[in-house]
Design brief:
This protein is an all-alpha fold and 75 residues long. Helices cover 61% and strands 0% of the residues. It contains two helices and no strands.
Length: 75
């Protein structure tokens, strides 16, 4: 106390002090390697399935548009 600080100088924070926030152990949050790979694989498969479904639906819509245009041109 009684020390003068330079303008723009900030207080330091002691991270070792107790706070209202609970400490989190990062090792508790990590999944075992097998589970991570399995969930990533399932996620990838799901994304691929959705992409295939969307592409097939788009192709079907294009086929329908082409069929209708041909019908108009020939009539």
């Amino acid at each position: 106390m009684g020390q003068q600080r330079e303008p723009g100088c900030r207080d330091t924070v002691d991270l070792a002090q107790a706070s209202d926030v609970e400490a989190v152990n990062p090792t508790d949050m990590k999944k075992p390697a097998g589970q991570v790979q399995r969930s990533e694989l399932n996620s990838r498969k799901a994304r691929l399935e959705e992409a295939r479904r969307a592409a097939e639906e788009y192709a079907a819509d294009l086929r329908e548009i082409i069929r209708k245009l041909r019908a108009r041109l020939l009539n």
